[in-house]
Design brief:
This is VOC family protein. InterPro entries: Glyas_Bleomycin-R_OHBP_Dase, Glyas_Fos-R_dOase_dom, VOC_core. It comes from Streptosporangium amethystogenes subsp. fukuiense. Helix content is about 20%, strand content about 35%. It is α+β, with helices and mostly antiparallel strands. The chain folds into two domains: about 50 residues, no CATH class; about 55 residues, Roll (2,3-Dihydroxybiphenyl 1,2-Dioxygenase, domain 1).
Length: about 120
């Protein structure tokens, strides 16, 4: 549980609202609230033990993906992909201490609406 709290607050800009470890913790980043479930929480009991973590992903928008990647690599966090670019922007995946996927996403430039000449 402590590793998950540290992961989100130290590396991804979340603020700890409630630390009820080892059962759970409540962290927030802007309007996003994550309840981190430990092995003694009701959330842990609701998921079968043979279900792998990370079927879904947490999507976090960052302003500068390259700078964020450099900072997190220096902290030796585990990335699960290379940078992928598409029409909407660029992204990379890493995992939290419980194995959940976290997508760091830098939106691409917004298309300019142009009036006909």
């Amino acid at each position: 549980m402590r590793a998950s709290i540290d992961f989100y607050t130290t590396h991804l800009g979340f603020t700890l609202r409630l630390d009820a470890a080892p059962a759970f913790a409540d962290v927030v980043r802007g309007p996003l609230r994550l309840l981190l479930s430990g092995p003694t929480s009701s959330g842990a009991r609701a998921t079968p033990s043979d279900t792998p973590a990370g079927r879904n992903r947490i999507h976090l928008i960052v302003e500068d993906l390259d700078t964020t990647i450099d900072r997190l690599r220096k902290a030796e966090l585990p990335f699960r992909s290379d940078v992928v670019a598409g029409p909407g922007g660029r992204q990379i995946l890493l995992t939290d201490p419980a194995g959940n996927l976290v997508e760091l996403f830098e939106p691409g430039p917004t298309p300019t609406n142009r009036l006909p000449a």
